[in-house]
Amino acid sequence: MTNTTQNQATGALPAGIRSGQPLSALAPMQGVTNISFMKVVNACGCPDYFFTEYFRVTRTSRLETHILRSITENETGRPVFAQMIGEDIHHLKRTATDLRRYEVAGIDLNMGCPAPKVYRKNVGGGLLRDPVKVDAILGALRDGIDGLFTVKMRIGFDSTEHLEQLLGLINKHGVDLLSLHGRTVKEMYRSEVHYDTIAEAVRSVRCPVLANGDVTSATKAQEILHRTGAAGVMIGRSAIRNPWIFKQVRAQFAGEPVPRVSMVEVRQYVDRLFRATHAEGIREEAHVSRMKGFLNFVGQGIDAEGRFLHEMRRTRTVSSLFEVCDRHLLDPETPWFADEPFSGVLARPNREGAGS
Ligand SMILES: Cc1cc2nc3c(=O)[nH]c(=O)nc-3n(C[C@H](O)[C@H](O)[C@H](O)COP(=O)(O)O)c2cc1C
Questions:
Q1: Contacts of 183 (CB under 8 A, 6+ apart)
Q2: Distance in angstroms (rounded) separating the CA atoms of residues 239 and 329
Q3: How far is ligand 1, taken at its centre, from the CA of residue 52, in Å?
Q4: Do 64 and 192 fall into the same domain?
Q5: This prediction's pTM
Q6: Which of 24, 26, 30 to mutate to test the pocket of ligand 1 (most atoms within 8 A of CB)?
Q7: Which residues does residue 50 pair with via DSSP β-bridges, in sequence order?
């Protein structure tokens, strides 16, 4: 099949946990959404879909074992889409074929990563500047993948100039699912999310769209679906802050009371994270540092003044870290975790720079 042919989407997406509801997905996050974190999220309430961290594709790349584990050791029963990032068509196809030997729900292409060291190589978000190249890549992957083929992208590189054309290519090549982060690459992570642009994309593509970007709570998820008409939501940083969000979203969509999260549960989450971030032989300070990467987000729901974050960031030992957690999370005066992140309480930028 040539690239000028209209391709058909391959087939039906896997059903969600509650049939008939909008979908939810845990966003792929490099350095975060490994098998251990997926298990932690599963214990709090699973998303409908998982996406792996990206498999880097180059002439010499091989499937990274630690990322493969999020497919081979995933016992949640939920579908896992394997994400690739790259621009070399031959090796993207080779990698997709290799990935299809595992139990993946589909192959996902990353066209959103905003890290300059990535986009300068014309991969990730860098591809959005070059619709001709995107045409060739999507055509080749559609032809080479005999299962679901999905794309995760942003709304443009530094503007939405090419968006219409890119969405046309999503249709032309029969992409099965589009996860759309409503920011340009240059807007990184902090600007307003352009939900109206996601709504336009939903109207112009034939495949289902997952709306992505600042889906911070169950209420917000419903608002965003209402505003965009998307088939579901993809949630990243807010699932690190609040891994119960998928359970809450399902309750919200069903019109049921949304379960609140107690600080005691958050304290239990800290224990789970501690086990999930442990590695054989890891030094104490390195383990504390890994924990901080997660607690930076959790802290956005603990207190409005950012006191927890301030104190947590100064700890160096496991015992001091847990002392701060106990003091803030087991205080009977403040029994509930906030539904939305407190405005002005920011996660540390370095946790966000690598993403897409
Ligand atoms: C630490 C981090 C790592 C990320 N890694 C990836 C990645 O590997 N692949 C990808 O497509 N997006 C990646 N992203 C982007 C997220 O999937 C998501 O699009 C973005 O965070 C916006 O969603 P949110 O507001 O719900 O976090 C990453 C984001 C963060 C914060």
A1: 154, 155, 189, 191, 193, 194, 213
A2: 18
A3: 11
A4: yes
A5: 0.96
A6: 30
A7: 26, 80
pLDDT tens digits along 238-284: 999 999 999 999 999 999 999 999 999 999 999 999 999 999 999 99
CA of 112 to the centre of ligand 1 (A): 9
Cβ count within 10 A of residue 197 = 18
Cα-to-centroid distance, 331 and ligand 1 (Å) = 32
Residue 81 lies inside a defined structural domain of this protein: yes
Are 297 and 200 found together in one domain?
no
Which active-site residues does the annotation give?
Answer: 113
Do the beta carbons of residue 58 and residue 86 sit within 8 Å? yes
For 87, the token pair is: 């621009």
* Residue 71 belongs to a domain: yes
Q: Which residues line ligand 1 (CB under 6 A)?
A: 27-32, 53-54, 83, 110, 112, 152, 181, 212-215, 235-238, 351-352, 354-356
- Residue count of the chain: 356
